[in-house]
Amino acid sequence: MILKNKCACNCTAFKEYHKHSQALDRVVEYVQCESCGLITAPESMKYDLSSIYNADYFRNVDYGWERRAKILLMYIKYINILIPLKKMRICDFGAGNGYLSKLLINNGFNVLAYEPFIQNDTYLEKSYYCDTPFDADVLLMVEVFEHFTNAFEDIRKILTDFHNPKLIIFTTNLTDNVTEPIDDWLYLDPDSGHFTLWSKKSLTLLGEMNGYKLISLDNTFLHIFCKASDMKMCNNLKILSIPAKFAMKIRGFVKGLFG
């Protein structure tokens, strides 16, 4: 146990882990809060991450994007049963190659892709991309939360820039569910650009600090922030439960990709 700067939950007790990054050519120090379970890499704000997010990233590192997008399409269709997502303006934040945005648009959703670093080869026409924030009802953030280097401040700014959307639909694996030693966890990987790993407790705190309620539909991978002031929408989301067959597909994907 070591002492570091105080966590957002006010705890000052941390465990320390070290992971070698080939892309960064350095050992990355991670610390995990002993109270809320949040894992951060305190020095990551100083790193030059261009060596990670290069042309090979989607081919060799984030290789699960296509299957993940298809699962998210099922998930969003399911939410649309109780929440009229097709009537809302959706921002696919960090849309990358646009594959998920394209699937959603083809299924009748109103989506713009926010991606400041548009790739040459995309599945989405450039007219559907934007590189500046806009007024969105829904932020869709797929495998984004773990990439922040100053997460609480970065996410607060994003929510402000996008005019505090009604919903944030996002995916990230939780530290609560790790069965092996945490420093062997495949998700704890600097070469994947993962510098903030969340627990349910830390996500709940993040939501509360910004005026949102956390709803985790399967307690594993799929999560929603709903504006706490919109009790009707929060209650509608709380009564959703992922069908068993669907949940098995999600957990199978998560286990296969991240261990």
Automatic annotation (TrEMBL):
UniProt keyword list: Methyltransferase, Transferase
TM segment ranges: none
InterPro entries: SAM-dependent_MTases_sf (IPR029063)
GO molecular function: methyltransferase activity
Domain of life: Archaea
Keyword Methyltransferase listed: yes
GO biological process, one term: methylation
Record-given protein name: Methyltransferase domain protein
Lineage, top ranks: Archaea, Methanobacteriati, Methanobacteriota, Stenosarchaea group, Methanomicrobia
